[in-house]
Amino acid sequence: MTDPLVPDSTPPQGQPAPLTGQTPADRAAMPLADPAGAATDQRSQWRDVWAQFRRHRGAMVALMVFLLILLFVLAGPWLWSLDATFVDIRARNKGPSWAHPLGTDQLGRDTLARLMIGGRTSIAVGMTAMIIAVMLGSLIGILAGFYRRLDAPLSRLIELFLALPLLPLLLLMVTLFREPLAKNFGAGPGTFLLIVVAIGATSWMQAARIVRGDVLGLKEREFILAARSIGTPSGRMMRRHVLPNVLSPIMVAATLGIASAIITESALSFLGLGFPPDFPTWGRLLFDAIPQMQNYPMRVVLPGALISLTVLTVNYIGDGLRDALDPRIRGR
């Protein structure tokens, strides 16, 4: 029989038992909270990033223009079905007409079709080379900043690559490896592989230096010290804590890398060391227009304007991403 002076400790039906009297092992065995809350917080954070990005008017205008450029080079060839490599000598050096809205070049090839296909190749080169450069630079930067024993040799490696003359090095790589790759993969795919690897392998240093500097300051923060104190492995610490917090400089370096890769590819093609004549790019169009530049200036203006507009929009998008991903600015 229960003593009426002693309160009943039995919990009501349907409610969990109180924690009083439980051992630490019992409390550790209890189920954790539902991870849906963490997912909601993550979605809320990305909504804040998007809201901050939309406040940057220049970045929003640049994003719309860049999407139009992508639509022009990706969907344009489906709507304008003329072959960019078709040679029609009878229609060479024609002005704008219904059949050729932007005219033809010295071999009778349609300029509009070549601008579309050339833009697709140039943007693909920029994207692929950027991915290679950012992945390599972020890896080296995180390792150099997080591990003290690797900081000195990796920093010397970064300085070594920064001291190299990049354009002569690119010219040497293209001259040495273009023919073997063209024999094994074909002229177009082999040149594409060579150019993206050469640009990516020679443009990762800026991303590595930026990421290394952020990691050096980040690894002394309280949450990193707390994670280290409870024995969190270094690999998990870098994936869960370091990498998400250096995402902002990585994104900015990625956007700058796209612009730099497009300009580098255009420079190589302009010098005649890029893609073959039947594989148009914006830089190749500039190279082909040099002999007729005085008589037909629009052949230089059009690809040059597209290159400049693409680089400008990508830089503005990177500026907006930098502000949106920076937590010190996002809360304003």
From TrEMBL:
The chain crosses the membrane at residues 60-80, 123-146, 158-178, 190-211, 246-276, 296-318. GO terms for biological process: transmembrane transport. Its main location: membrane. It is a multi-pass membrane protein. It is found in: Cell membrane. Residues 1-29 are annotated as: Disordered. Keywords: Cell membrane, Membrane, Transmembrane, Transmembrane helix, Transport. Pfam families: BPD_transp_1 (PF00528), OppC_N (PF12911). Residues 119-318 form the ABC transmembrane type-1 domain. One of its GO terms (cellular component) is plasma membrane. Belongs to the binding-protein-dependent transport system permease family. This is Peptide ABC transporter.
